[in-house]
Amino acid sequence: MFKNNASIFADEAGFDITEDFIGYYQAIIHPHRRYVRTLIEAISDLDIEMIAPSHGFAIRHDIAKFIDLYASMSTETKDDKKVVIVYATLKNNTKKMANILKDCFVENQIKVELWDVDKADETEILNSIASADAVFVGSSTKYADMTGKLEDLLQQMQKMNLEGKLAAAFGSYGWSGEAIEVVQDYLNGTNMKVQSTSDVIKSTGMTHVEFPVRIRFYPTEDEKVKKIKNAAEFVSDLLLSVI
Ligand SMILES: Cc1cc2nc3c(=O)[nH]c(=O)nc-3n(C[C@H](O)[C@H](O)[C@H](O)COP(=O)(O)O)c2cc1C
Fold it and tell me: Within its chain, how far is the Cα of 104 from the centroid?
């Protein structure tokens, strides 16, 4: 990065590094902004003389400006956000997943509307989806397919304009979990931005967040609950992001 005899200090670079500083944040750091907020809080009382990052110039001047830039880009929006969670279940394992997702969103001050597709009115669910910022659709697997009345709802969703919304599939299964993949396929047939493990890795480098969210039988063990929470935290971060 530094040419022969070039200075390592931003104030001797010969140009304003602010644009590169912001670009690096957007490309690499933004997915990890939850931790940026924690660290900015941790250093708030320190008298900092220099920022010496592992990449790029060392910063000796305008330190507060650069820390403030990280703080403002890492902050959360104050706009109200809403997640709709719809599920179909035989023995409530998928319902348990739905409730873990719900609790996580509520902890992040995100409004949640939760629907059991077999107990609620379809029009009411579709209206709820129409005004959502993100939609989670879950099903357990019965004879290699979705359970309950989910298919009809998903077909209706494909006829709606759901542009700009985030979506994710989830479900409990016994051995292969075909229904979760079928839900994912239906969601991909809408114009929502459907979360996938592949996209998460490519856009953030994170490997602990998986979509669709697949849980064998009961989500009681720590590891399984963590997997569900990781997905909810990831979508919460996307919804609350200001950039
Ligand atoms: C009649 C029946 C059929 C099932 N078929 C499948 C299947 O084809 N593939 C699979 O992975 N699991 C299958 N399972 C397992 C369920 O998906 C699993 O028990 C799941 O945890 C149920 O979640 P739920 O309580 O949300 O319905 C089946 C279970 C039952 C009772």
Answer: 12
Q: How far apart are CA 52 and CA 172, in angstroms?
A: 47
Domains and CATH numbers, the chain: 10-74 (no CATH), 82-240 (3.40.50.360)
Contact 141, 176 (CB under 8 A): yes
39 secondary structure, DSSP code? H
> Best substitution site from 85, 89, 90, 97 to test ligand 1's pocket, by max atoms within 8 Å of Cβ?
90
Per-residue pLDDT tens for 207-229? 999 999 999 999 999 999 999 99
**What residue ranges line ligand 1, CB within 6 angstroms?**
89-94, 140-144, 147, 172-178, 217
Q: What span, in angstroms and rounded, lies between the C-alpha atoms of 211 and 194? A: 9
Give this complex's ipTM: 0.99
